[in-house]
Specification:
Blueprint lengths: L3 E10 L7 E8 L55 E8 L7 E3 L3 E5 L3 E3 L6 E5 L4 E4 L4 E4 L8 E5 L4 E11 L4 E6 L6 E12 L3 E6 L1 E7 L2 E3 L2 E2 L3 E7 L2 E6 L7 E2 L4 E7 L5 E3 L2 E3 L2 E2 L3 E7 L8 E3 L2 E3 L2 E2 L4 E7 L5 E3 L2 E3 L2 E2 L4 E7 L5 E3 L2 E3 L3 E5 L9 E3 L2 E3 L4 E4 L8 E4 L15 E4 L2
Parallel strand pairs: 2-5, 4-7, 5-8, 6-9, 7-10, 8-11, 9-11, 10-12, 11-13, 12-14, 13-15, 13-16, 14-18, 15-19, 17-20, 18-21, 19-22, 21-25, 22-26, 23-27, 24-28, 25-29, 26-30, 27-31, 28-32, 29-33, 30-34, 31-35, 33-36, 34-37, 35-38, 36-39, 38-41, 40-41
Antiparallel strand pairs: 1-2, 1-3
Length: 427
Amino acid sequence: MNKTVLFIALLALHSTNLMSYNTLLIYADSPQIVATAGSSSTPIGSGSSGSSSGAGAGSGSSSGSSGTGSSGGSSTSGSDVSAYDVLIESIMIEDADGLTINAPGTHIMDTEVSFAGASGTCAISVTVSNVTIDLNGRVLAYGGVATSNVNGICISPGVKNIVIKNGTIAGFVGNGVNAPGTSGNNIHALKLENVTLVNNANGFVGNYINGGFIRNCDVNNNGSASDTYGINLSNSSGFTIQNTNANRNVSTGAKAYGFYLSACTGCSIVKSVANFNQGSTETAGMCIVDSGGSKSNYIGNCVSSSNKSINSASYGIYLNSASEAYVQFCEAKSNMSTSGTAYGIGLIGASNCQIEGNTISRQTYGIYDTEGNGTETNIFVQNTAYQNSIANFSRPNGAEINAVSVKPGHLQDAHAAGAKDNISIRR
């Protein structure tokens, strides 16, 4: 039987000025995670898996302070690790159900892993707080035959202080990272950094997350026939997405979004890019959907370009019933729809939002706001719009959005505008 061997090494440091930590080295020589358990005393870095013995589940428990474990493995000290007591336990997972991390520590993937679980499984599941998964430049990929609902890394409700970093999660027919917190059982302080999520059905899907970030990540080329999301964050607060790309995420039969915030409060998308996302129906590079008391979300210093809908509306930035959202210093350009309308920044049912300092070009409408006459609460400040085919600024149901109109090449003519005026460059 082909086997994927998983090594857990406990390093108890003798030095008083260093912290103890756990390390998981994942070795994969086949496309599935299977088999039995045992123990080995091979030091880290030896390149050998050592011998395994014993029976049972082999999960064992170990103490970071003592360097001993209940599975009975012996400790050893090699010349290359003389500062440590090292306990290595060889653990393999039955039935391709995936690896469950149920002890805190830092877990490092030491080779490429291809997981072949059935629908409803997850390659790596985290069920305890204070865990770091360092992908170590490696790829965690799906290599099975299921057509849906297989996730890469799953985070259990209620855990906190989880870090995923430095590698690629690819090809899963579910979510690359799945973090389904629940009401009253939120996930706290979840952090993704330097991670590529590619060719999954969705990149990242998180619910009920309090605090944390996605930073310096690439979430590209994910897709399915259903609603597709590069990043989908809902019912969350105080979460930041920064320096992250969500490009070419495609739904062949439904909606597609690069970044999607739903019912969030105080969440931000900053210095990020959403380009060339495409849906059969509604499509947006960046979208904020608010409901109930959710509000005060922010999009700043971002680019949303060339996002396309085949059969419905397309948006560079879409505020759908958003309340107190703030969009600042962004560029929305060349978003398009084959048979619908394209908006640079569309405010549909939004209220008390501020749109400031953005540049919008080459859509059907530049900025479009549906607020009714006499009920306008959205504020538009120092935005510049040009080459939008129907209107640079439009509020069809209410008072016009104040804008100073200038000729192309004559932006200096806008010097007479007030400090808060928008600029519409005539075609």
